[in-house]
Write a structure and sequence with these properties.
Number of strands of chain B: 30
Largest interface: A-B, 26 and 23 residues
Number of strands of chain A: 14
Shape of chain B: elongated
Strand content of chain B: 25-35%
Largest sheet of chain A: 6 strands, mixed
Number of helices of chain B: 14
Strand order of the largest sheet of chain A: 6-7-8-3-9-10
Oligomer: heterodimer
Radius of gyration of chain A: 21 Å
Order of helices and strands of chain A: EEEHEEHEHHHEHEHEEHEEEHEH
Structural class of chain B: alpha+beta
Helix content of chain A: 25-40%
Helix content of chain B: 25-40%
Distance between the termini of chain B: 62 Å
């Protein structure tokens, strides 16, 4: 039973403990249809735990996780019909070939795209008849990716899909993602350490740190309020929220996190020297919160 | 799902084919060994098929889900719209069918060569059946029950004995379930493994402890349940519990393992707890709880009566000493049942009985579990008495209390001894040995306070020419009547023909006022159903020719015949049937008033129109002098021991459940003795 008009994901006060160790300490997250959220954070910070909770594969210690308005722990099987999943490690049965995997998966989804699956694997140059266990790590991810997309999902969940992929494979994955999002408007939730890739796909970024989400913001908004500025050594940029700076001669290069055109004009004059900041630069500037995410 | 599993198990089928090809090779190799080639081939094929099938099932049970959870591969299935039950049953179906198919593939080469390996199946099954029988001799009746079920499985009609296949199916389930249990326990090691090991030790111990309790209660059904129910519940949980593991455990190894462990604990522990409650109920069984009362023995004086009742569902029997005036029930221990009819001393305040705790298993040392007891009803004090008897003698003894209540005579086969009420041995006599003794059929009576009459049955084998084969032996039974006392050798008084059909020695005497000297009368009514032959009467030196015979009751098929001795002024009543082939019995019970006797006839009514077989009973109140049947009461019987006029219980009847009622001779109305 789907709740019409419900967000694709609604996480409230999500808590996950492993014994005495607290991994998630009250995460709130909401994802509307068509959004593409990238969850970044340091290794071991709880991204996979959050993803497993989101997939109904792990029971939260507290709080609730609803997908399409329904409790995903209770309604996992029904909800998975509308979801495509790419795990961190390719977990398909190693004895099965991609062709057999497709044959196994096809009856499970009413909107299975057999042609799309085959075409994608051909684009990735993956043989259909090789057992999954004999494929390289990148190929496994690409097969899982193809399986996920072939189900024509309304919601795509990717747990660090580019981990261990070479640059070419990584690019191919993100290109497929961009196409998918452009063509079908699929809602996307993914975790990744590939910040340039995230930048090309995500519309929103959330940073997981210390069991919470200190940053959860539209990517454009995040980037628009971060700017590199070149100022004199004695210029006061405090109101713009400097987060990182470097000096050369009598000039300083400062990354500010509260960029405002009018305030900048007042402080720096009518034509300040300004540069856009990359997501990686922004995340690194967040120090403990984001440094690991950029690793 | 099934197909996906079959793909993963494809190498199993290759192995099966390879193994199948080995069978013809075994046939070729057998010839030099002197074994029939075809039999060797077929035997090898069926044995290989069974080993591969069962071995595979064990391995497949081990690897059903636990390795997937351990390696994180279960996520692949959980990320798809597959329900827990579809996932579990898909795996189960695939694995069972794969094992069956692999076993079948092993047989194909032999079948193709014209063999009949399946016909060898029963032969293979006979081997474990022989092994199965071994514990029968060491573990008592409960294994008989197992064996009965096993036989039942095997006895189902049909070609290739489907009962064997059912038994094989059960074995397959158990093997698979054990595999799954060990898979979860070993592949998902952690604290739950420790828990599993602990429970695997404790739960069988609890079950066995329950078994012991049921053993001591004497509840055969309970004993069987204590062994089978927890095991069956464990198999059911292991078979169906995967759904719960997948539903509640999912990818977490700890939770996945824990769900199974908790389910096993709850289900198996719950069943043990339920059985424990049942055992407690049976141990604390009250008279009112009994489904039927098997025996009522009132004291000749006073309000006390001993009752033995049974819980028919469990087969547990208990004995109570009940005050029929106050309803007080004296506890004789929670696991108490009597193996012999108890004896009240004359005043009805001292009860002597033999007590054994539970049914005795063949292999158990029970020397201290049978004993002779004295219960002082004035003070409710139960005192064990040491009696110089071996344990096996206690189990099959006969006992009599002297008329003055001062001595007890005990007979066990050829041994007769007398003890006082404290258990002190007064004398012990050994009857001369004879071959072909017929065990368990002794009788003992006090002739007077000092001498004892003991009957010992014996049998000898005779050839019967009528069967056309002189080698065919028939048992010929006879009874020796011995007179024993202190200080003299046993003297054989008489040997009389005796038959198990006759109703055995009939110790009923009609009580004549002032004629108590005749207590020692012993009767033997041969062919007693319809032929009023009396071979011997109890004043020892009298014979049938000196005893008068007169029919005193005749009511339809029921009749009673009186024998009277002109010498000793005593008269004895013997119940006889008038119709030769009528099933059932006729018994004389009591003389509730002087000159009036109770005669009960019972007819076994065969099942009619789906109705179960039942016993039609009716009791006649008869005036001995006029030989009139004064009244007939349907559905009631008298107490099995005779009662003198005015004695406690002389006017008691029991209903179809064995509960006693007091009879009003005037009106024929019945009033319950016990009010619950």
């Amino acid at each position: 039973m789907t709740s019409e008009g419900a967000p694709v994901v609604e996480i409230r006060d999500l808590r996950v403990h492993y014994g005495q160790k607290k991994v998630l300490g009250g995460v709130d997250l909401r994802l509307e249809p068509g959004e593409a959220l990238a969850l970044i954070g340091r290794n071991g910070v709880g991204k996979s735990s959050l993803t497993r909770c989101l997939l109904g594969q792990q029971k939260p210690s507290g709080g609730s996780v609803r997908v399409f308005g329904q409790d995903v722990w209770r309604r996992r099987a029904a909800l998975m019909e509308r979801c495509g999943v790419v795990p961190e490690d390719g977990d398909a049965p190693p004895a099965m070939t991609p062709r057999q995997l497709a044959r196994f998966s096809a009856p499970l989804y009413p909107t299975w795209d057999r042609g799309g699956f085959t075409a994608r694997l051909e684009r990735f140059s993956i043989p259909l008849g090789t057992p999954f266990g004999q494929l390289s790590r990148g190929q496994k991810t690409q097969v899982m990716f193809a399986l996920a997309l072939a189900s024509s999902p309304e919601f795509l969940i990717l747990d660090d899909p580019t981990l261990g992929l070479d640059a070419v494979a990584r690019r191919a994955v993100f290109e497929e993602l961009v196409d998918e999002l452009a063509d079908r408007g699929t809602t996307l939730f993914f975790t990744s350490h590939d910040l340039p890739g995230i930048e090309s796909v995500a519309t929103r970024v959330a940073i997981l740190s210390d069991g919470a989400l200190p940053v959860d913001e539209d990517l454009e908004s995040l980037k628009s309020r971060h700017r590199w500025i070149l100022v004199d050594e004695d210029t006061d940029v405090g109101p713009l929220g400097p987060t990182e700076e470097s000096s050369f001669g009598r000039r300083r290069r400062v990354l500010v996190s509260r960029w405002d055109q009018e305030e900048a004009a007042r402080l720096l004059g009518p034509a300040p020297e300004v540069q856009a900041a990359s997501l990686e630069e922004i995340v690194v500037s967040l120090g403990d919160v984001g440094s690991g995410a950029a690793a | 799902m099934v197909w996906r599993e079959w793909v993963a198990l494809r190498y199993l089928f290759v192995a099966a084919v390879a193994l199948g090809l080995m069978a013809p090779l075994a046939g070729l190799m057998s010839t030099p060994l002197g074994v029939d080639a075809e039999s060797a081939r077929d035997m090898t094929a069926i044995a290989s098929a069974l080993c591969l099938g069962l071995g595979t099932l064990g391995a497949l049970g081990y690897s059903t889900v636990a390795p997937d959870v351990a390696t994180g591969r279960l996520g692949f299935y959980l990320a798809r719209p597959i329900s827990a039950s579809a996932l579990w049953f898909g795996k189960l179906t695939a694995r069972f069918t794969a094992a069956a198919a692999a076993a079948g593939l092993v047989l194909v080469p032999s079948l193709a060569l014209g063999g009949q390996p399946i016909s060898m199946f029963q032969l293979v099954f006979d081997a474990p059946r022989v092994l199965w029988r071994l514990p029968l001799h060491s573990w008592g009746a409960e294994t008989e029950l197992f064996y009965a079920h096993w036989t039942w499985f095997r006895s189902a009609p049909g070609y290739y004995n489907p009962g064997d296949w059912t038994a094989l199916g059960i074995i397959a389930l158990v093997v698979f379930c054990l595999g799954h249990f060990f898979g979860c326990s070993l592949r998902l090691r952690g604290l739950w493994t420790l828990f599993d090991v602990t429970m695997a030790v404790l739960l069988p111990l609890f079950a066995f402890s329950l078994f012991q309790r049921f053993l001591e209660i004497g509840a055969l059904t309970g004993r069987f349940a204590a062994l089978v129910v927890p095991a069956a519940v464990a198999v059911a949980v292991l078979l169906l519990g995967g759904i719960g593991q997948l539903r509640w455990g999912r990818r977490s190894p700890t939770r996945f393992h824990g769900v199974l462990s908790v389910m096993l604990l709850l289900a198996v522990g719950g069943s043990i707890f339920a059985l424990d409650r049942w055992a407690g109920h049976l141990e604390d069984l009250k008279v009112r709880d009994a489904d039927s009362i098997l025996d009522v023995t009132p004291a000749r004086q006073g309000p006390w009566a001993v009752m033995t009742g049974i819980d028919t569902r469990s087969g547990a029997a208990r004995t109570w000493v009940v005050n029929t005036e106050t309803g007080q029930e004296l506890g004789l221990g929670p696991r108490m049942r009597l193996t012999q009819r108890p004896r009240f001393a004359a005043e009805g305040q001292d009860l002597f009985f033999w007590r054994c705790e539970g049914i005795i298993a063949v292999n158990r040392k029970v020397k201290n579990r049978c004993g002779f007891y004295h219960l002082d009803l004035r003070r409710d004090v139960l005192t064990p008495r040491r009696v110089p008897l071996e344990y096996h003698e206690m189990l099959s003894h006969r006992m009599a209390l002297a008329p003055d209540g001062s001595k007890i005579a005990i007979q066990n086969g050829g041994t007769v001894l007398a003890v006082d009420v404290s258990g002190r041995l007064l004398w012990r006599q050994q009857l001369p040995d004879h071959s072909y003794r017929y065990g368990g059929t002794g009788r003992v009576l006090f002739r007077d306070s000092d001498s004892v009459l003991a009957m010992r049955a014996r049998k000898r084998l005779e050839s019967d020419e009528r069967w056309g084969d002189p080698k065919v032996d028939r048992q010929q039974l006879s009874a020796e009547i011995w007179l024993l006392d202190e200080g003299s050798e046993p003297s054989l008084l008489r040997v009389v023909p005796w038959s198990t059909v006759s109703g055995t020695l009939f110790p009923f005497e009609r009580f004549v006022e002032g004629d108590s000297e005749e207590r020692s009368a012993i009767f033997n009514v041969s062919k007693g159903y319809y032929d009023p032959l009396v071979n011997w009467t109890g004043t020892v030196d009298e014979s049938i020719h000196e005893v008068g015979v007169e029919r005193v009751v005749e009511a339809g098929p029921d009749a009673a015949t009186e024998f009277h001795s002109p010498r000793v002024r005593a008269r004895w009543l013997v119940a006889l049937r008038t119709e030769r082939d009528l099933p059932g019995y006729l018994m004389l019970h009591a003389e509730p008033a002087a000159g009036t006797v109770l005669v009960t006839g019972a007819v076994e009514v065969p099942p009619i129109a789906g109705k179960a077989r039942w016993i039609l009973r009716r009791t006649h109140i008869v005036d001995v002098e006029s030989k009139d049947v004064l009244r007939t009461i349907d559905g009631y019987a008298g107490l099995p021991l005779p009662r003198r006029p005015g004695e406690q219980g002389a006017d008691w009847l029991v209903d179809n459940r064995g509960f006693p009622f007091r009879l009003d001779l005037e009106t024929g109305e019945l009033e319950p003795i016990l009010r619950f």
